Structures are given as C-alpha cells and as structure tokens.
From TrEMBL:
Protein name, entry field: META domain-containing protein
Origin organism lineage: Bacteria, Bacillati, Actinomycetota, Actinomycetes, Propionibacteriales
Membrane-traversing stretches: none
Domain of life: Bacteria
Pfam families: META
Entry-linked InterPro entries: DUF306_Meta_HslJ (IPR005184), HslJ-like_sf (IPR038670), Hsp_HslJ-like (IPR053147)
Domain DUF306 per the UniProt entry, residue ranges: 43-144
Signal peptide residue numbers: none
Organism: Nocardioides zhouii
Length: 279
C-alpha cells in the first residue's frame, strides 16, 4: 500500500516542509522487530536497477533514488517523492509493514512518476534481502531491486570552508559562468558545531541566505532558511538553479587539477542540472 502526503511547490523555502514532513513519516512508525537479522542494512543505498512483473525499471543516468534503513524504519528519496515506511527483518526475510509506504506528492515528469510507482511497487513486493559487499539485492514474486551502498556525505571536507560558485549547469546541460550584483559574489558555507546541525550561509549572486542545516539519514538538509534581497531578470535563472539544488541537496566533493570542488545536485533531478563551487 502506498499513501500520498500532499505538499506544495519546490524551492528552498517551499521544499523544507516536504523534507521535514517525510522525515517525520519515516520515524513515526513501528520497528524492524522480527527475529534476528542476518543482513547488515546499515548505510544509504542508491538504486542501480530493478524490475517488476511489468518489466525493468527505467533508471536514468541522472536518477538518485535512495534507501536508508534505520533500526525502526526505512525511507529515502524517490525519483520524484520522498518516502518512508516501517519494516520487519527476520534473517533474510523482509516485509514492509503497517500502512505501507507513505510519500509526498510532488509534481514531476511522467518518467519520474513512473519510476517512483515501479520502485515503490517493487519495494513493497520484496520479501527477501541479500547483501554481497556493497551490493544489496531485494527480491520477491516477480520483483527485484539492485542497490549500491554510497559513502556518507564528506562532512569533514565540506564544513567550515567558504565555497565560491564556479559554474552552474541548467536542465539542458548548458554550463554557465556565475554573475552577481556588486558585493554579492555567489558562495555557500556550512558551519559545523560538532553535532547534528550547523549554520548555513549563501549568496545566489542577488539574494542572501541565512539558516540552519541538519542531518537526516546520513546527509544534510536545510532545516531553516531566511532569504533577503531581490534579483534582476538577468540573474533569475542562476537564482532558480541554486535555489533548486539547495531545496534537497546531494553533495559530492571531487578533486581536479584546480583543487577540490563541491558539486551539489537536486535530489530529485532528472537531468544534468548542478552547481559547482570551489574554495
């Protein structure tokens, strides 16, 4: 069973409610109580491939469908929606229990919604799990999911550094150089207080963000955001690109010839859009 929780449009200011809501859904229910588990499900897994009775899942190169198991629940980010559920694990036997999968109801492309539907169907239909190194396989009658373990977000490499925007890529794959109003060069900074949250500050080139980030399922999300300023038309596309990725960020630090760069994508992206920072 899949239950929808309706939310509104995305963006940092609007997307925060969806993130917090699904986090609440994921932690609200029962537990993975059953017998003793024989499979270590710890960490965050990203969908690689899958199938249902209707055929293979259409997992695009840009899809970032995640699954995280806590002691009491599972949850993650679908191609379009965030989701959560309760489960039981007994040896290798697996079962989604309670009301089933609860998800947000965001407006997405047909491809993303179709992938969510097929993925959630396979997840609820799975009745066995097996792990081989960094690969997790979930199977059931006419369903199979293959997931890969991903490394935790590189917190030590990201926090307490001033990252300046180097480029941003739009939905069509066009790479842009940043522009800005005087004194508002685009940047982002995650300050770390040593706990599960910290301060975040940023500039889009025309507006300034002050807020707080928090940890959820091994990754940061923006828990509070206060914006000030306004943007001229010439900077609106850049503003929207940065606002989008910060609404539900996926962070990656890469090393190149010019030193480290921080790449941030929107968790539900279905294309090449991203922003790249350097420090």
């Amino acid at each position: 069973m899949i239950r929808e929780v309706h939310t509104h449009g995305m963006g940092v200011r609007q997307g925060l409610g969806a993130v917090a809501l699904v986090f609440g859904l994921a932690v609200a229910g029962g537990s993975a109580a059953g017998g003793e588990a024989d499979v270590d499900l710890g960490g965050t897994w990203v969908l690689v491939a899958g199938r249902t009775a209707a055929g293979p899942l259409a997992v695009s190169r840009y899809a970032h469908v995640t699954l995280t198991f806590d002691a009491d629940n599972l949850g993650g980010k679908g191609a379009c929606n965030d989701y959560g559920a309760d489960y039981e694990l007994d040896g290798h036997s697996f079962d989604v229990i309670g009301p089933g999968i609860e998800q947000t109801s965001m407006g997405c492309s047909e491809e993303q919604e179709a992938l969510d539907s097929a993925y959630f169907s396979a997840l609820t239909g799975a009745d066995a799990v097996a792990r081989d190194g960094d690969t997790l396989t979930m199977t059931g009658e006419d369903v199979e999911l293959e997931l890969r373990l991903v490394a935790p977000w590189p917190r030590a490499e990201v926090v307490d550094k001033l990252w300046r925007l180097a480029t941003w890529t739009d939905d069509a794959g066009v790479v842009h150089r940043p522009a800005w109003k005087p004194g508002l060069r685009p940047f982002i900074r995650f300050d770390d207080n040593g706990g599960a949250s910290g301060r975040i500050s940023a500039s889009t080139g025309c507006r300034v963000l002050e807020g707080r980030w928090r940890m959820s399922r091994g990754a940061p999300y923006i828990a509070r955001a206060e914006w000030r300023g306004d943007c001229p038309d010439r900077l609106m596309d850049q503003e929207m690109a940065i606002n989008s990725v910060l609404s539900e960020p996926v962070l990656d630090v890469r090393t190149g010839d010019r030193g480290p760069k921080l790449v941030i994508r929107y968790a539900h992206v279905n294309g090449p859009a991203k922003v790249v920072y350097r420090h």
